[in-house]
């Protein structure tokens, strides 16, 4: 593995009436990343957080790495607001119609790490043209939109393929997996090459078991 293992709990699975308390649990667990799921009601059938949420949480947790996952039809319109809000990494999806490469470049120029994501039914080939531009590839293991869904094993093959491509192309992007991760399946993701693990429901219900399963994998 080229990258250190990071677990990025998703605050979508936390208490929305007390988000700072949910983020505090992440820091107390000794983790460094927080995953923020941003939804627009168009690309996915749900709404969640805007840049104001990142802007109010980041100063309270300046040492945490804010991993912002944009599930938006028009992500290119929201790079500046999320960058200015204090995001450390901004991930956009490959599926919507917008200038993908220019948007990745905009994230980079804003001084942020750059991520690209693909849905369970999107082939890895769709993101290959962008691999040299990114710091992270986010493999969705559920159809995005909601926490608490079951892991789709199609992600395992994609993680493995991305891990091979990373080696062939001599790149070092992180491979992040998101959706339905539990203490029981996290090792399967890590053994295929995932180094960054998103977990919403499982972190807030069963965090200690998840963390130890990931560290032992
Ligand atoms: C789904 C989100 C995920 C989700 C993960 O649209 O991208 O980050 O919150 O939640 P769990 O771990 O509950 O599947
Ligand atoms: Zn996510």
Structure, explained:
The structure is a single chain. By secondary structure, the protein is α/β, with parallel strands linked by helices. It has one domain (6-216): Aldolase class I (TIM Barrel). It has helices spanning 19-28, 51-57, 79-84, 100-109, 154-168, 186-192, 201-216, and strands spanning 6-9, 33-39, 65-71, 89-93, 113-118, 136-140, 174-178, 196-199. An eight-stranded parallel beta sheet has the order 1-8-7-6-5-4-3-2. Helix 2 (51-57) links the parallel strand 2 and strand 3 (65-71). The longest helix is centred in the C-terminal third of the chain and has 16 residues, at 201-216. The mean pLDDT is 98. It binds D-xylitol-5-phosphate and zinc ion. Residues 10, 35, 37, 69, 178, 198 line the site of zinc ion (ZN).
Annotation keywords:
binds D-xylitol-5-phosphate, globular, 217 residues, 33% helix, 7 helices, 8 strands, binds zinc ion
Biggest sheet layout: 8 strands, parallel
Looking across the biggest beta sheet, what order are the strands in? 1-8-7-6-5-4-3-2
**Fold-level CATH name:** TIM Barrel
Which structural class do the helices and strands define? alpha/beta
User: Topology as H/E string?
Assistant: EHEHEHEHEEHEHEH
The backbone outline, from C-alpha atoms, is globular
Q: How far is the first residue's CA from the last residue's CA?
A: 12 Å
Note the total helix count: 7
Q: What is the CATH top level name?
A: Alpha Beta
Report the radius of gyration as a whole number of Å.
16 Å
Q: Segments where pLDDT lies below 50 for 5+ residues?
A: none
How many discrete domains? 1
Annotated CATH architecture: Alpha-Beta Barrel
């Amino acid at each position: 593995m080229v990258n250190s293992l990071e677990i990025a709990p998703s605050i979508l699975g936390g208490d929305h009436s007390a988000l700072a308390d949910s983020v505090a649990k992440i820091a107390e667990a000794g983790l460094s990343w927080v995953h923020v799921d941003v939804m627009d009601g168009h690309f996915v059938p749900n709404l969640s957080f805007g840049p104001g949420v990142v802007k109010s949480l980041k100063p309270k947790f300046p040492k945490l790495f804010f991993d912002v996952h944009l599930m938006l039809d028009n992500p290119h319109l929201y790079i500046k607001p999320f960058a200015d809000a204090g995001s450390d990494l901004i991930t956009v999806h490959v599926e919507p119609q917008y200038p993908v490469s220019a948007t990745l470049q905009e994230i980079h120029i804003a001084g942020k790490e750059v991520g690209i994501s693909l849905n369970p039914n999107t082939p890895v080939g769709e993101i290959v043209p962008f691999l040299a531009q990114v710091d992270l590839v986010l493999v969705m293991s559920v159809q995005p939109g909601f926490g608490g869904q079951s892991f789709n094993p199609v992600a395992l093959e994609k993680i493995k393929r991305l891990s091979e491509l990373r080696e062939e192309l001599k790149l070092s992007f992180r491979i992040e997996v998101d959706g339905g991760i539990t203490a029981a399946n996290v090792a399967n993701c890590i053994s295929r090459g995932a180094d960054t693990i998103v977990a919403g429901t499982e972190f807030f219900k069963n965090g200690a078991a998840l963390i130890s399963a990931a560290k032992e994998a």
